[in-house]
Amino acid sequence: MRSDTEDSLRKLYLSVADSNHIVIYCGSGVIKNKIGGVSRDSLVTLVAQKTMLGFAKQYGFKKVSAACTNFFTSKDHTPEFKATIAASYAEKKDKDNTIVSSIGETLYRDSWSEGRLLSELAKFVIKLSVDFKKSVSIVTSNYDTFIEDSIIKELYIPYAKKKEEEEKGKTSTKDFKDFDVDLRLVGYAYGEGDKGVPCYDYAFARNEKLPKIEIHHLHGRICSMVSSYALNNLASNKDVDKEGAGLFIRSGKLVFSEEDYEESHDRSLEVLTNLFSQGTTIIVGSSLTDTPLVRSLLKIKSKSEEQHGKNGGKIVSSRRAVYAFMKCGIDGYEKFQLERAEALGIEPLFYEFHDEIPEVFSNLTALLVRGNKDGSYSEVLPYDQALREWVRLAIRLTNHQKQFRELVESGYEMSAKLARDVIIERYARKDELLKIECWFLDLEGDVSKKVLRVWTNSVGPTFATDLRRSEAVSSLNAEKVASVQAFCEGAPKIIPIDQLKLGLVKLKDDKNISATRWKSFMSVPIVIPFEEYDVDVTVGVVTLASTYKYSDFENRDFFNSKKALDVLKASKNESFMSIYDDPNERRDICDYLKALGIYLAKMIYLESKEN
Q: Are 120 and 365 spatial neighbours (Cβ–Cβ below 8 Å)?
């Protein structure tokens, strides 16, 4: 984390601590890893594949498919423009349901690759509301229920464990009467008027004066009856103002096409301006290009300037935005970003890697827990303290040769057994070779110079430290090394070799082939808790590599992905990671790799502590 970001984060903590109302704006970046990196562009394309089927039947699939592929993959048109086309071809009698079900299927189809951001955000919000009795308003342009599901999950899991321990077999964990949390979670969806209509109300204790977490769905809400944690686990769910679309429930007016955005503009502007004026505001997961968002910030800034001008006071912004630091070869490019932030009346918290975003909320939660009254975090932030502690313990273990060799051998045996007896046996294709590598975090100097180092793999144990492969955690290496990329993203990823900038061998016929035998990778970050610092920390990555290639179906028939899938299944040298279209299987393999990594990480931690 950048030093200026650390300074801004400490200021944000003080602002949060002093404010009675916290507002959090969540853009699409918040759910990026949850939905497999599907962009707004991709989502619109997937909707068009459903809505334009009738058009294709009328004019011929082959001809229309080529035209649609060119149009919807073009960078010359905005997602809103494409959405207008997709919506216009939906059958009028069932237009809304078609769009809702298409979006719902896309959002909830592949949620195996969840990162840390949603859970860290949920912990932060719960801490504010339950422990500090602060009002919290979350406002989002996203359609999904992942934020509310994460909040409920973070509350529900410890409750379920407690109930299981205390009254195993006697009462249902879905019974809210005994829920030991003072909290209400209320969702609002927007339609014709400026006032949001409640679309759910989860009361964890029946008291109208409870602290309340509000979630405002600016562009409508689509709830999956299968995927929603709330619908499937909580008995007190009250969904009002809802319409069914097969397996999905829509609340509010769905904002999808250009017409929808125009119609909703004034309403969204009013809602955002009102909320941002009520307390400390944190903007996360947004590129700060959404028109109502930008205009609401400018409107508030203008009012603040006018107010402070009359009083002769200095403007202190209570609005912060967590967004990417954009590197550019032009000197002063950082200054450009700072100038725009000042123009919008916000203070930026820059991040270089996506995994640094959950760090912000993890640090804020830890600072709130301690209140920073004992000075524990006055010099070094809690997350950085935990990182240093991890590296200290890891180095200590390597200095104890006996314990270190035992751990490396154990890691080799477990990873080899997992690769051979589980993944190859259950999932891999004929003659597909696999390798598992377990990378753990090291530091070179301060916490900004992170290094991933291979501790063990399924091929054979390596005891000499100098022989273990290591890669710096950097933007450059994130483009070349799958493990580094997953670490930086903070979420499990499947990465084909052609998406990595590796060494290529030039052939006579102008074809390029990779210099490595490994053609596809599933990389899973490893997170463990550091209770003494009140944070969870990403300490490593476990990577599964295959000698077979991975295809992500980008070049599929526009209207017939099943046909393309069947072709891939029949093709040679296609990895099981790409041909299995079932996210449950990816989730299972991801869980196997994660369990291995967590076990080894805790062994490193505990063995060193004991020594």
A: yes
Picking from 31, 24, 196, 232, the residue whose alpha carbon sits closest to that of residue 127 is 24
**pLDDT tens digits, 227-269:** 676 666 654 444 444 555 568 889 999 999 999 999 999 999 9
Select from 118, 163, 120, 123 the least CA-distant residue to 142: 118
Query: What residues contact residue 308 under an 8 Å CB cut-off, 6+ apart?
Result: 314, 315
For the chain, the residue count is: 611
Summarize pLDDT for 283-293 with one digit per residue, the tens: 999 999 999 99
- What's the chain's Rg over C-alpha atoms? 25
Task: Give dist(CA 224, CA 105) in Å, integer.
Answer: 9
> What are 536's strand-pairing partners?
529
Highest mean pLDDT among 63-77, 500-514, 560-574: 63-77
* Euclidean distance between CA atoms 469 and 521, whole angstroms: 17
Domains of the chain, CATH where assigned: 3-35+112-370 (3.40.50.1220), 40-108 (no CATH), 384-610 (3.30.450.40)
Task: Work out whether strand 184-189 and strand 212-217 pair parallel, antiparallel, or are unpaired.
Answer: parallel
Q: For 529-563, what is the HEC assignment?
A: EEHHHCEEEEEEEEEEEECCECCCCCCCCCCCHHH
pLDDT tens digits for 250-260? 999 999 999 99
What is the pTM for the complete model shown? 0.89
Q: For residue 70, what are its two tokens?
A: 């060119």
